[in-house]
């Protein structure tokens, strides 16, 4: 299974084409739209979320509410496009007009300068339009389709914010809770936090940061419940599922780190306090006494919940601009201010949830015959019985 996305931040639409989905998967626009709405929420979001009310249109690959097995095409139209038609139009313009419109001032922390160097763009808008986090809209839409597939297989997934600007949740507040229980808390929380005791403190810090013209980052966690053991592979580096998940998290705009289970804390513990002892009983088959490794050994799932975290840097677009250099004049200047958020960590948790969902769903389709959903469901059921008695 694979997908491609296309579109610019202020272009007419974002598009995704998904190839390899099984036939007979229930799928409607409403299933995707509820996930797009979650991405636009969270305390700290900027004015753009008030302008763009993202909804998807499924334009191929689905008939009467079920996938056909052919490519599925998703379209999310940009409501703000009407204000950008002259700037982002497809048709050629006069050279003098093109030069007048050029953006030659790269913003620190963005792809502007490096992208301009790579592709030879003197107008840096050619870079920022595609490198914008706006593209994650359609990645969430794709992930929503993957989540629907996982739901049909009894696999559940949730994301939540674990830290904003140094304010951390207490893991004990949600330890032992199921994905469904965590989701109920998170979906009623202003910053998508599973520990409501720190929510107000996080909100106050976000408001203070915005007032000071600055931005803050944080960490998010994704939990996947119900994955069978042995998904992924140890035989090649590029088949390890935890490596694919790490790459997926790192591909999200502004993410700079990833960890599983205890993560970097493992560097400060002896092996006896890290590795997960193996248990077996008639009812559950193989389980682990702990889940310090976050559901992975040797690049494969252990059957325990997948626990992966990512760290997001503060958004680089500031109302307290940083210094940069004009690529035409080589003169120093203070970076321009674009419409932005003061904190997008809650929204980023939703993006993380959906890129993880995609990789997990893809790994399952790699392992099992999956031309049609009923066959995939049966194959997974048989595999679970096999691993239980192994």
From TrEMBL:
<keyword id="KW-0288">FMN</keyword>
<dbReference type="Pfam" id="PF01264">
    <property type="entry name" value="Chorismate_synt"/>
</dbReference>
<feature type="binding site">
    <location>
        <position position="45"/>
    </location>
    <ligand>
        <name>NADP(+)</name>
    </ligand>
</feature>
<dbReference type="InterPro" id="IPR000453">
    <property type="entry name" value="Chorismate_synth"/>
</dbReference>
<feature type="binding site">
    <location>
        <position position="339"/>
    </location>
    <ligand>
        <name>FMN</name>
    </ligand>
</feature>
<keyword id="KW-0285">Flavoprotein</keyword>
<keyword id="KW-0057">Aromatic amino acid biosynthesis</keyword>
<keyword id="KW-0456">Lyase</keyword>
<feature type="binding site">
    <location>
        <begin position="313"/>
        <end position="317"/>
    </location>
    <ligand>
        <name>FMN</name>
    </ligand>
</feature>
<feature type="binding site">
    <location>
        <position position="298"/>
    </location>
    <ligand>
        <name>FMN</name>
    </ligand>
</feature>
<comment type="function">
    <text>This reaction introduces a second double bond into the aromatic ring system.</text>
</comment>
<feature type="binding site">
    <location>
        <position position="39"/>
    </location>
    <ligand>
        <name>NADP(+)</name>
    </ligand>
</feature>
<feature type="binding site">
    <location>
        <begin position="253"/>
        <end position="254"/>
    </location>
    <ligand>
        <name>FMN</name>
    </ligand>
</feature>
<comment type="pathway">
    <text>Metabolic intermediate biosynthesis; chorismate biosynthesis; chorismate from D-erythrose 4-phosphate and phosphoenolpyruvate: step 7/7.</text>
</comment>
<comment type="similarity">
    <text>Belongs to the chorismate synthase family.</text>
</comment>
<dbReference type="InterPro" id="IPR035904">
    <property type="entry name" value="Chorismate_synth_AroC_sf"/>
</dbReference>
<feature type="binding site">
    <location>
        <begin position="130"/>
        <end position="132"/>
    </location>
    <ligand>
        <name>FMN</name>
    </ligand>
</feature>
<keyword id="KW-0028">Amino-acid biosynthesis</keyword>
<dbReference type="InterPro" id="IPR020541">
    <property type="entry name" value="Chorismate_synthase_CS"/>
</dbReference>
<keyword id="KW-0274">FAD</keyword>
<comment type="subunit">
    <text>Homotetramer.</text>
</comment>
<keyword id="KW-0521">NADP</keyword>
<protein>
    <recommendedName>
        <fullName>Chorismate synthase</fullName>
        <ecNumber>4.2.3.5</ecNumber>
    </recommendedName>
</protein>
């Amino acid at each position: 299974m694979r997908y491609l996305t296309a579109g610019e931040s202020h272009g007419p639409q974002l598009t995704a084409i998904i190839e390899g989905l099984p036939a007979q998967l229930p799928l409607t626009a409403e299933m995707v739209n509820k996930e797009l709405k979650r991405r636009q929420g969270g305390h700290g979001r900027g004015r753009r979320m008030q302008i763009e009310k993202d909804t998807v249109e499924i334009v191929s690959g689905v008939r009467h509410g079920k996938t056909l097995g052919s490519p599925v095409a998703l379209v999310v139209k940009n409501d703000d496009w009407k204000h950008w038609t002259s700037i982002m139009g497809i048709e050629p313009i006069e050279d003098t007009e093109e030069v007048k419109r050029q953006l030659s001032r790269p913003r620190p922390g963005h792809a502007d300068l490096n992208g301009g160097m790579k592709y030879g763009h003197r107008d840096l808008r050619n870079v920022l339009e595609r490198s914008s986090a706006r593209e994650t809209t359609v990645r969430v839409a794709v992930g929503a389709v993957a989540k629907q597939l996982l739901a049909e297989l009894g696999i559940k997934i949730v994301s939540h914010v674990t830290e904003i600007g140094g304010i951390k949740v207490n893991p004990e507040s949600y330890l032992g809770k199921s994905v469904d229980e965590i989701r109920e808390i998170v979906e009623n929380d202003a910053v998508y936090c599973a520990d409501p005791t720190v929510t107000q403190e996080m909100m106050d810090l976000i408001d203070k940061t915005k007032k000071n013209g600055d931005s803050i980052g944080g960490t998010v966690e994704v939990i996947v419940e119900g994955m069978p053991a042995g998904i992924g592979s140890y035989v090649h580096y590029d088949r390890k599922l935890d490596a694919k998940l790490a790459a997926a998290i790192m591909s999200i705009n502004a993410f700079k780190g990833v960890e599983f289970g205890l993560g970097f804390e493992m560097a400060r513990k002896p092996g006896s306090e890290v590795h997960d002892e193996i248990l077996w009983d008639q009812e559950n088959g193989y389980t682990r006494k702990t889940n310090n490794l976050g559901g992975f050994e040797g690049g494969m799932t252990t059957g325990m919940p997948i626990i992966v975290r990512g760290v997001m840097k503060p958004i680089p677009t500031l109302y307290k601009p940083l210094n940069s250099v004009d690529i035409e004049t080589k003169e120093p200047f203070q970076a321009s201010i674009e419409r932005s958020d003061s904190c997008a960590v809650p929204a980023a948790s939703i993006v993380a949830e959906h890129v993880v969902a995609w990789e997990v769903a893809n790994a399952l389709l790699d392992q099992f015959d999956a031309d049609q959903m009923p066959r995939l469901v049966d194959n997974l059921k048989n595999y679970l019985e096999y691993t239980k008695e192994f």
